[in-house]
Amino acid sequence: MPSKKDEASFAAFLEPSGICLVEYRRERDGIQIIRRHSDASRLPGLADAGERVAELITKMGVQQSRLSVAVRGFGSTYQIMMLPPAEPAILGPVVRRELARLNPDMPSPRVDYVLGGQFDRRRRERPEGGTPQREVLVGAAPEIAVSAFGEELALAGIELDHLTLLPQVLQRLYESGNASRDPEALFIDLPGGPVIGFFHESQLRLVVEPPVTGDDDLSTRAQVISEHVDRGNLFLRQQFRGVELSRLLIAVKEEESAAFLDSLGEQLNLPVETFPGPVSDPGVLACIGTVLDAEAEKGLNLSPFAESPEDKKERARRRLVTLTAIAVSAVAVLWAFFTVAATLRLSSTVEESRKVAVERMSQLAPLRIVAAERQKNAQSRTYLRRVRAGDVQIQGFIRALLRATPPGIQLTNLGLQRSGDEWSVTLTGSGYGETGADVLLAIDRFFHAIPREMTVHDLVLTDLNDAPASQFGAAMRFTMTFVLSAPAEPRQ
Amino acid sequence: MNDFVARVRVFAAANSYSLVVGGVTLVTVVAALWVGLPARKERAQLDAEEKRLEALIGSSKSWMNQFQPASDEEAAVWQGTSAEIAALGVPPAERLTLAQIVARRAEDAGYSPAHIKFVSPPAPTTLATRQVAGVSFNPAGYALQVDGSGSLTTLNRFIETLPPAVALQSISLTAAPDGSASTSITLSVFEPAGGNVK
Fold it and tell me: Do B53 and B102 have their domain in common?
């Protein structure tokens, strides 16, 4: 499959009086015409024009080619409308309806339009804040004719890129040339008849095709052109607040250029200059204008393979939807993929760790037995100490009781009764002394010595009575009760 | 209702492409979530398990490094401990032997004469079952009562020599005119429980 680089690029200007075809190459600084071909045979329709163009290109021995075409006549029409600014979705139907109204005889027209600049004809300010109307160049051609043209080319393997109309070619040529915002006119003496475009603020405002032929002598043609330029000037003056043409640019055959310049310069009261640029053939100039419109971001394109603005917008919307959907789906799928992949990787790692752990556990099994035996032994030792602690506590109690018993106190009865981990103690004794106060002092000392010597609680003196006097003088019997606290938990 | 349905139809017709693409995207996203969410949950569980296993492996490694094998002396200690544990109870058939041992030790402690007799055990709530190293010892259906005459010092010596199968339950000392003390000691006895009975 040949690449786009291998494709030959052609541009053609078609009118009923013949064809002008050029092969060109787009250079960085301009368009290079490689070869040109003109065919002055009369063309009855666009289908025949397509067949003729295909023949010409095929004869050049080109396998793959792309073609941009400008058409004049063949049932095509154009209209410069002033319409309020609106979205393409609104403007498109309005333009089509308006064109159908103006051309009721055209069956199923193929319509396209380009937006020009805004122009406010009102002198007064717009207090309501409205926006001025916009110029719209509308072009149309019968759908059947352009389809037949495209099919003839397609049969020859020629890709019809662009199909525009002569007024749009004028606009592109004027823009690429020495475009001025002043009112100016551009006259191109095409083989099929002259065409004059009137521009103001760089926008095409009026197109005139004077009814002269190449058979008329030059002075007659110049006279007719001059009259139409005057009329065009009148139109601009009326439409755009009295502006006046400042210059006339002409593009005619090289051999007629000087004569036209002289003749028109004499008849018109304004400067007449040659259209700038190296091309001197008006037909080739029209081809270059066609290329410029094809390369423009928004050209007037009536090609049956061209998309309407609505279709283009829908396609762009679908592309956006598709890309968004792909992005969202890709993110979701990638997230799921990486999550699953990470899980599987981690699962593998965990499986390895499990094996290592099982192996370690099997190595630890005999060690565990030893450890369990040590633990069991430690627990047993602790328990034995705790069992022994009960007896030791009683031994400690007995020693403490002996220490706590002061002189003058004689214990007569001691009872210990286990109650869980604690012991309930009942202690009966007698106190002796020379006086009752001595006796009470001894009992009091004993009473306070008990909690100092041992861990007890609920110490109560339950009974205190006089006892029969002895050789010491005074005596008293007492009974105390208390609870011997549980021994402290032995250390591990 | 019909108006609503008509609007929906118009909307669906006007946005069929977007609806189809949106539907496919939704299915893709739902499928991705259906696969990804359980995987994520599983990963969280695996992550936790991995951390646990790492800690286990790390601790086992340090444990193995620090582990000291059991020496013969240590094994002998375990054996001695087991014997001491076994001595925490006396089988019913050996109650007379136990009584004889207790009486002998009471006399050795200084109780003269030492009288011993079997009495009813104390209330079960006052004594807990001995449980250690997988062995249980229940309070026996009898108790030993030791009567004798001696001082607090005698009592102290006697307690020192009590066999591990008995536990002090109550002590009563009453001073006698001759300076000694009439002592009565009740000892709870423990017997091996169930299968431990020999």
Answer: no
Task: Please tell me the predicted confidence (pLDDT) of residue A315.
Answer: 84
Query: What mean pLDDT is predicted for residues A395-414?
Result: 90
pLDDT given at position A2: 46
Is residue A149 located within the same domain as residue A217? no
Does B130 sit within 8 Å of A347, measured CB to CB?
Answer: no
pLDDT tens per residue across span A16-39 = 888 988 888 888 888 888 888 888
ipTM higher than threshold 0.85: no
Q: Which of A340, A357, A388 sits opposite B39 (nearest CB)?
A: A340
The CATH number for B124's domain is 3.30.70.60
Same-domain status, A21 and A126: yes
Cβ–Cβ below 8 Å for A349 and B49: no
- Domain-located, residue A219: yes
CB contact under 8 A, A415 and B173: yes
Range of the domain at A288: 1-177+279-306
The enclosing domain of A133 has a CATH number of 3.30.420.380
Residue B79 inside a domain? The answer is no
Q: Looking at the structure, do residues A211 and A302 belong to the same domain, yes or no?
A: no
The residues in B 98-117 lying below 8 A from A, measured between CB atoms, are none
Closest chain A C-alpha to B18 CA, distance in angstroms: 7
Q: Does A266 share its domain with A284?
A: no
Provide the pLDDT for residue B105: 94
Q: How many domains does chain B have?
A: 2
Of chain B residues 108-167, which have a CB less than 8 A from chain A? 122, 126-127, 130, 132-134, 152-153, 155-156, 159-160, 162, 164, 167
In the three-class reduction of DSSP (H, G, I as helix; E, B as strand; rest coil), residue A325 is classed as: helix
Does residue B77 lie within any of the structural domains?
no
Beta bridge partners of A186: A197, A249
Chain B residues near residue A390 by CB distance under 8 angstroms: 167-168
Give A333→chain B minimum CA distance, Å: 5
Among B42, B43, B156, the residue with its CB nearest the CB of A395 is B156
> Taking the CB of residue A350, how many other CB atoms lie within 10 A of it?
21
Query: Is there a single domain that holds both residue A242 and residue A131?
Result: no
Choose among A359, A363, A372, A491: nearest CA to B70.
A372
CATH number at residue A428: 3.30.70
pLDDT digits (tens, 9 = 90+) for B38-69: 999 999 999 999 999 999 999 888 888 888 88
Q: What tens digit of pLDDT does each residue of B67-122 get?
A: 888 889 999 999 999 999 999 999 999 999 999 999 999 999 998 788 999 998 87
Q: Do A197 and A299 have their domain in common?
A: no
Q: Is the pLDDT of residue A472 over 70?
A: no
In a domain, B162, yes or no: yes
B114-120 long-range Cβ contacts below 8 angstroms, 24+ apart: B114/B146, B114/B147, B114/B148, B115/B146, B115/B147, B115/B148, B116/B144, B116/B145, B116/B146, B116/B147, B117/B144, B117/B145, B117/B147, B118/B142, B118/B143, B118/B144, B118/B145, B119/B143, B119/B144, B119/B145, B119/B186
A98 & A124 share domain = yes
Tell me if residue A126 falls in helix, strand or coil: coil
Residues of B in contact with A322 (CB under 8 A): 21
CA dihedral A419, A420, A422, A423 (to 10 degrees): 30
Give the domain range for residue B17. 2-64
From A343, A350, A367, residue closest to B53, measured CB to CB: A350
Q: Output B41 or B9, whichever has higher pLDDT.
A: B41
Cβ-Cβ pairs closer than 8 A, A with B, add up to 177
Q: Which of A322, A338, A339, A470 to mutate to test the interface with B (most CBs of B within 10 A)?
A: A339
Question: Which of chain A's residues have a Cβ under 8 Å away from the Cβ of B159?
Answer: 391, 394-395, 398
Cβ of B46 under 8 Å from any chain A Cβ? yes
As to burial, measured by CB atoms within 10 angstroms (0-12 exposed, 13-18 middle, 19+ buried), residue B68 is exposed
To the nearest whole Å, the CA of A301 is away from the closest chain B CA by 26
Out of A209-218, A472-481, B72-81, least confident range: A209-218
Do A114 and A147 lie in one domain? The reply is yes
